[in-house]
């Protein structure tokens, strides 16, 4: 039994099909991301600071989603090329670890962005309240 330790092999046709499928999905997602970015551009002309903060937050969300999707597609392509289940498991473990680290970083970034947006909203609300309240806080 010389073929006993031959190992697990994915047929070339199946590997090619999987690679093409991943590439088609990536192109479709790139088109979707591009359309979403163009939609965001329509909201960019706002002079309202709260709306500007919301648009900035949305833009960053979209950029991070694009980054995460890119990492997922890259991972899928690596998995398709894995020579055996052990390599696939190693690749999966590395991907999970890197995505966990990315998620932690992204959550810290979003915390800061949300804090800035909330601060901007509070300033806007305070300015609006001050503009309708007479000086000295007395009603006339």
From TrEMBL:
Q: Which residues form the signal peptide?
A: none
| Region: Disordered, residue numbers | 116-140
Instruction: Read off the Pfam families from this record.
Output: Phasin_2
Q: Where is the Phasin domain?
A: 32-127
Q: Which intervals carry biased composition (Low complexity)?
A: 116-129
| InterPro entries hit by this protein | Phasin, Phasin_subfam-2
- Would you tell me the protein name for this molecule? Phasin
Which species?
Salinarimonas soli
